[in-house]
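Run log // design_07
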């Protein structure tokens, strides 16, 4: 009997036993500080971590040491514990990272109330269950299986933070406390990513960055009548559109001439042949599932070319979504509705832009270049202000030398093949992941393995009916257990 076959029933029994506790954690709002300014006084984040700490203690896993909550005034709390190795002389150490904080509940919940999570047809529904909350159960199930079967285990450390959805701004503070206890890290495993298919597990290779700022364009002191002053006083919206169309974006036909692409020259980078080959492999394996998540009806007319048989060109769509820049207008201030629109010209326009940048773009330089495009020689001498700037670099784990090794992938794939007859699939992420900026800076040249049990094939992980398939959680936890137990195959 293989290790995986021995591990699976232990993990399966544990997941069955922990389901009610999982539901309790999922019922906690745990809003990230960005969405709850009173996070410290209302104590939701700390309460969840305390409940998690009590649950860990109740499991009586003898290898767990140093179980505690890092807590200080003004700093979001984190849960930490270490795990002793099976050999006293072992120095190889794996840090597991995840989080408990959430963004607000999205719309579209039909399976359950987001404040009352439920298990329906072997899926656990609730906000946060796909993105992070399963991590502690994966880790505890793994440790139980390792102890019950006397499997080899390295040194381990676990850090679960609560500022992830706000940019992980307290991660380094709490991470440094952890490193005072476990000072040397050999590998980082981040249990927070998604995958588009039910029959693959996935790991992440890169994220895009973002640049967000507000633009205020002022042309007068008060609103005036468009009939009397139209043509005499410039319209701020016209100036805004002029800058976008003449300085920011470039609209051109795709290579085959069948579709229209929007490019942003300031942020464009070359896509290498290696990246194209890698992306083609992903699309060959799960192109339909990727597009089910990344697209909507008619998207092929907007983002990429079509093949001769009129099927969507998944490669163009996927590359556009993960390696090329884009921008969005996120909102306007004080714009009247159509019903309330009159004949007045407003004296100013106030809007928020968000640019998504390729993984290897320097966002500091890119932001300065974008700002110049708005501020230099504004049309009609309008007053233009850039306000509330916010940006974060993307990450390419290969370029930062934090990519996991071929030996790590091949070890993980042994168990993926046994369970699914498929290898783990490398993916790139279209959004940003601020925690990776801190982790790659702190752990230079140390492999960072971003993977997880979550996927989005059942619905949007941010909106209604977010769920995790319990058998998928069992399979992932079992495969990860075998991968970690066989660390001697890949440790450097």
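design_07 sequence
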């Amino acid at each position: 009997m293989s290790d995986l076959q021995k591990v699976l029933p232990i993990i399966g029994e544990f997941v069955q036993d922990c389901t009610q506790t999982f539901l309790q954690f999922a019922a906690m709002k745990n809003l990230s500080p960005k969405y709850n300014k009173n996070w410290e006084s209302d104590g939701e984040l700390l309460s969840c971590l305390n409940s998690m700490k009590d649950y860990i203690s109740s499991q009586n896993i003898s290898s767990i040491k140093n179980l505690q909550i890092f807590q200080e005034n003004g700093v979001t709390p984190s849960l930490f514990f270490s795990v002793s190795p099976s050999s006293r002389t072992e120095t190889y150490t794996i840090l597991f990272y995840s989080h408990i904080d959430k963004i607000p509940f999205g719309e579209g919940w039909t399976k359950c109330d987001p404040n009352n999570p439920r298990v329906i047809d072997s899926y656990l529904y609730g906000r946060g269950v796909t993105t992070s909350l399963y991590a502690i159960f994966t880790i505890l199930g793994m440790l139980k299986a390792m102890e019950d079967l006397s499997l080899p285990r390295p040194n381990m450390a676990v850090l679960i933070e609560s500022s992830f959805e706000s940019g992980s701004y307290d991660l380094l503070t709490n991470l440094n406390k952890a490193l005072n206890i476990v000072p040397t890290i050999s590998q980082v495993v981040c249990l927070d990513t998604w995958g588009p298919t039910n029959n693959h597990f996935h790991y992440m290779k890169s994220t895009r960055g973002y640049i967000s700022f507000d633009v205020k364009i002022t042309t007068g002191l008060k609103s005036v009548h468009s009939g009397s002053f139209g043509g005499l006083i410039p319209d701020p919206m016209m100036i805004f559109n002029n800058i976008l169309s003449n300085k920011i974006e470039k609209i051109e036909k795709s290579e085959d001439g069948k579709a229209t692409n929007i490019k942003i020259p300031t942020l464009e980078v070359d896509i290498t042949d290696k990246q194209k080959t890698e992306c083609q492999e992903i699309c060959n394996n799960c192109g339909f599932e990727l597009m089910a998540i990344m697209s909507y009806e008619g998207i092929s007319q907007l983002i990429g070319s079509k093949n001769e048989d009129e099927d969507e060109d998944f490669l163009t769509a996927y590359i556009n979504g993960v390696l090329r820049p884009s921008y969005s207008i996120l909102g306007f201030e004080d714009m009247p509705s159509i019903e309330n629109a009159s004949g007045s010209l407003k004296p100013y326009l106030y809007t928020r832009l968000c640019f998504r940048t390729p993984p290897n773009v320097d966002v500091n330089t890119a932001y300065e270049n974008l700002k110049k495009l708005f501020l230099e020689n504004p049309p009609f001498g309008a007053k233009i202000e850039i306000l509330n700037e916010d940006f974060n670099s993307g990450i390419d784990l290969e370029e930062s030398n934090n990519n996991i090794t071929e030996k790590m992938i091949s070890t993980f794939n042994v168990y993926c093949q046994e369970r699914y007859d498929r290898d783990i699939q490398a993916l790139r992420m279209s959004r940003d992941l601020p925690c990776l900026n801190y982790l790659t800076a702190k752990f230079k040249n140390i492999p960072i393995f971003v993977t997880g049990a979550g996927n989005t094939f059942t619905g949007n992980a941010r909106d209604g009916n977010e769920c995790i398939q319990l058998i998928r959680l069992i399979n992932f936890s079992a495969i990860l257990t075998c991968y970690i137990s066989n660390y001697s195959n890949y440790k450097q």
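Residues 3-27 form the longest helix (25 residues).
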